[in-house]
Each structure stands twice: as C-alpha cells, then as structure tokens.
Protein: Alpha-galactosidase
Organism: [Clostridium] citroniae WAL-19142
Amino acid sequence: MSIIYDKEKQVFRLDTRNTTYQFRVAEFGFLEHLYYGRRIPDTAEYLPVRIRHGFEANPHEAEKDRTISLDLIEQEYPGFGVSDFKVAAVSVINGDGSNCIDLRYVSHRIMEGKYSLNGMPSLREQDGFWKTLEVLLRDPYTDMEVTLVYGVLEEHDIITRCARIRNMGKGTVYVNAAHSACISFPTDQMDMISFYGSWGHERCPERTPVRHGKITVDSVRGISSHYQNPSTVLCAPGATEDSGDCWGIALVYSGNFAITVEVNDFKQTRLVAGVNPETLYWELETGGVFETPEAVMTYSALGLTGMSHNFHRAVKYHLIPKQFIDQRCPVLINNWEATMIDFDEEMLVDIAGKAKELGVEMFVMDDGWFGRRTDEYRGLGDWQCNLDKLPSGIPGFARRIHEKGLKFGIWIEPEMVNEDSRLYEEHPDWCIRIPGRKPTRQRYQLILDFSRDEVVDQVFEQLYEEFKDAGIDYIKWDMNRSMTDRFSAALPARRQGELCHRYVLGLYRLMDKLTRAFPGVRFEGCSGGGGRFDMGVLYYMPQIWCSDDTDAMERILIQYGTSMIYPPFVMGAHVSECPNQQTGRTVSIDTRAALAYFGTFGYELDLNLLSEEEQEAVRKQVRYYKDHGLVCAHGDHYRLTDPEKEREYTAFMSVSADKKAAVVAYVQRVSGANKGIIYIKLKGLEEQSLYEIPELGLRCSGAALMYAGLPMPVIKADNEARVFTLCAG
Ligand code: DGJ
C-alpha cells in the first residue's frame, strides 16, 4: 500500500519504493507536515516537539497553552493571516475585506489510480501504479475549503501535488496566492539549486546555501521564461552527483510561477511552489473553484544523479505523449540559421535535396512561410501560405519534400500577432494591451488574448484548415515575447488579475486541440530558444528547442543544467554553422555533433555550403545518430563532470536501459603544453560485462571502466570533442 492513514495516530504516510512522505492531523485539526525523505518504517509523529518560545502567537483554542504555536507547527498547506508568519501556501481576501484563511482537517479519501486536472496538464496514469489521496480542509468561519491532492507513483519515487480551493461561503472571495505544494524541513543545513539564465543562456545551475529570510525564483513574463526555470532542488550541503539527500520539485506549468524557500530562526526551511502570487487575483463566487497546477516532487538519497533519473523517468513514462516514448526524433534539417525569413521555395528545396543526399530524415521550414511575412515586422496571425514565397502552397510544398523521401515539418507562432496583419486589422482588440496606452512591442509583435475562447478557436481553425491535407509530420511551436500591458478587453476590472493564468489555460486548450487534431505529428516547443522549457509544454510535445545558442561549447552548460530535471531526449539540439552566429566561435563539426547527439539531433545550416570533407562528416554523424541516438538521448544520463568547476574538460554519458550499450562524450575545452593524462570514471555500467570501445581499441569490464577509469586521448586543440561507443559483448 503506498498510501496509508494510521487512524490512531492520525498520520498519513505516502511511501514510494525508496521514499516516505508523512503528515498528520495535529491539535485543533491543523495539518502538520512530519517528514519527507529516505524511506522509513515508522510513523514520524514523534518528531515535532512542542515547546514554549518567546513572542509566540497561539491559536485561540490553545487557551493558556503557549506551546502550541504555528511558529513551530509546520503546516502542510499554510494559510495567510492567522498566526503562521512564514510564506503562505494560500491567501484569500474574504467578502468582508479581511485577508485570512485558517484551514483545519475535515476528511480524506484514498483512491486507486491518478487524479487529473481540469484543463491543465499533469503526469499521466499510463501503465503506472498510481494512488491518489485527497484531504479536505476547511476554514470553519468562512467555509472556504481546500482539497489537497496527492498522487503517489511508487516505482519512480514520485509524489505529485495540487490544491483545489473552493468558496463554500456566502460572499465573493478573491484568491491572491494559491501554491501547488508546500514542503518543510526541520533544518537550515540545505543548499538550493535553481536554474537562471537569459536568451541564449538558459538553465544555468546556481547552488547557494539557503539563508534566513526568503529566496524566490519566479517569472512575471507570462511564460515560465529563460530567466528562471519552474523547478528547484534542495539538497544536503555535501550532496554530490552520487550521494547525499536531494529533493527536487518541478511545476507542470508554463506561465508565471514562483518558488520560494524561506528559513526562520528556528532552523526550519519551507518551500512553496506554484502560480506566481504577484500576478494572481482570482474571483471566486460561491461554489467557485480555483485549481492549482501540478507540482512534481522527488527525493533521492543517491545524490543529484538519482534525483535526475527519477524526474527523467517520470517525464519519459508519465508526461510526454505516449506515442513518442523511446521514439527517436528523425534527424532533421531546419532552415532558420541558413536563410532566416528571407527564402523562396527553390532555396528550401535545394537545402532539402542536399540533406536527403547526406542521410537526413526530415526537412523543417522555419519562420517566414505565411501571410505578409517578408520580414520580422509583419504577418504573424495570418496562418495562410505566402504564395509569392511558396507557389506550391503548403500541401504542394510538403509533397515536394515528401517526394524526396523526407518527412516535412513546419514552424508556427500561434500566440502572436503583428499589427501589420489581416487578423489585427479585423480584431484589434484581440491582443493583450491596455486601452488608451501604446503597447510595448517585442520583436514588433503583440500577444493574442488567449484568455478568450473565440481567439483560441479562430487560431485553431486557421491552422487546422492550412495543415489538414498537407501530411505534416512535425510542428515547431514558437513564442517570442514576454507579456506586458496585461489587460484583457473581455474581463471586467475586478478580474484583470485572472488574465495571466487564464492565458495559460487558453494556451493549453489550443495545444490540446491541435495535438489531438494531429496525433501523429511530433510537436516541438520553443520560445526564443528555451524560454518555455517546462513540464507543462512537455505534456503536449515530446521535445523543446533548448536554446537559440547553438554554439557547442556554450551548449555544454545549457544542456548540463537542463539535464538536472529534464532528460536529453526532450532537448532540441542541432549542429549549426561556424563561425557560430551567436558567439562567433569556430569548432569542428564533430565537436558540434558530439553535443547534439545528446539531444534530438539535427542540422541548422545550409548543407550545400559545407566542404566535401564536412559533408562526409555529416553523412557519418547521421549514420551514428541513427545507430546510437536512442542510447545517447533516451538512455540513462550521467553527468561526469561539473562544467563550471572543471573548466579544462567536460564529460558526460548515457547508458541503455539493459546496460549493454553506452556512449561517452569527452570535450577538451582548453588545451595546454605538456599535460598529464586525464582519466574519466564511467558510471551506470554492468560491473561484470565486457565492453568493446572501438574508437580506443579497448575491451574492458564495466568495473574497470567505472572504478579505474578510462584514459582520455591527448588532443592538441581547444574545444575538441571525442565520442566513445561502448558495446557489451
Ligand atoms: C526563435 C526560435 O528559437 C528560432 O529557432 C527560430 O524559430 C526563430 N524564433 C524564428 O523566428
């Protein structure tokens, strides 16, 4: 049984294969968190200790007992405004204007299977042994109710959470904070790892000790953003890749989020994660419900690698659409860096032709094929083919690509509109802007108001009409701006604080409609590179373009940071031209491929412009990915070095599920005269198996490779990668 309620002790225990999560009904019905960590057989009601301390606030029912205080009772889902002064999980403005919610246990139920959310993505039940726990809490004065919902996936050490906030009282209430989860720890000996960045520098890991006060990572840009990822790790200060307690949390959400970690003077650490309260003000009439997005939590005693593997398996088996599990993305050529918007049909056919010759499997036409799109200033919103550029139209052009034996993919940016477009001329009030104010532009475009069903439906109709007979195999879904001037012409003043979350719900509705209308199509998420790299998007799309920075040396850190939470097979990664368009750096085509192998792999350049020698290299690379891509991208991934600490070289590897095959990438970042030999200790192999490594002419046991290591070749160049293929005989 993975969920048990101990009636006598009033303790809930949620057990997975290696973890235990516990909370209980404490004095006066407060729900008190007890423990989350390595699996234990006991119930942990002995852990909280009631003592008196100075300046405490006591619940009324405690009368003269001053040991009962919410300063020390770590609530499972703390409400704002009573006497819990740390960051709240939920806050409401009641009908009388008071800002207070005091939640007490009412009842619970334990169910087989996994709950689902209304209009929002969440981990899927598919082929998994899930259990659900619902705990109903109520504020006895206002009849505000919160149902805490927990999903337990025993086999992958995953616990999911969300909350349903229901107004069962008489007057209208406004919700101004509604987190998905709250977790507490009775220690301040913790490091926090979050993932910061910007355009071209997404998901750089940053590890700092937690400290008194609050640390918040968040987004107010309308998308989860390049700047902070909606995921965070807490770990023991000594935790490494291979050992130590690590807790990870990731939101299945693509909009404004916030994750706050707070430490108080009693050495308690609290984490809350959910929709960003800064941009949330949600009206709840009597009977109304606000449902939070899902938070996915995991714990591993086996360090960061163990934690990452739990997340990676959850993403593979319970998040991405089922039909793409362990299905390698076709090796693709994308024309963006080759032509930008400025292309015509024959140029594209030329690029596709050469790609086919070199073994590539799919041609993807990027931005520029629709409406008045002759430059970045116009056309968005009109999803009809620009026949001046593509006289064959989309079905005709797709046919030409298919006739070459290639699959066909296409780019869209459905959430956007340019003022110079037919859509804007017909519906100027369909975009997000404040009436009477000139709107902020980004890339000269505005965001469509997806909080409105008619806007979502119209965009769907356009795309459906254009694509329904075209035999499209792949769609790249881009999103190129931050949300500003937040105002919807369809919402009354008091409900403008609902726009950001309603936008995300509208976005998910369109993603749902389009992916259902084209179930065979592989979608790729994108937002100016990796500006919306989150579990919300991955529910609909099996991959996301990792970054517009395609420089292999920069990709080392981007892909390393991304891999903490997300598996390599969801990371869009391409070989692009050199000098690199973003950094001006030139590295060999094999080094570029070595990084891209550990992602979806493809090309983003004009293959016609490559030398004979480079073309031959491409041929070999495509063959290599066809043979080993499933291991590189879909295997168990191991980070062998920390690229920020070890700047001389970097190594990482992936191992197939049966441990019979592995691929190791080694990148010498800085060369030097008269250097010693570098030994890399591999991971995840079968000790007893003998592995052939043809590139090195070696045959060694897994034990030797893991415990004695593998000598790396001497390379007389900076930024040079080598890839080693391991095959167990
Ligand atoms: C941003 C994306 O990240 C690029 O790959 C490309 O699709 C451009 N947008 C097109 O406008």
Notes: Residues 612-634 form the longest helix (23 residues). Residues 247 and 458 are 43 Å apart (CA to CA). Residues 336, 366-367, 411, 478, 480, 526, 528-529, 545, 548 surround DGJ (CB under 6 Å). The chain has a mean pLDDT of 97.
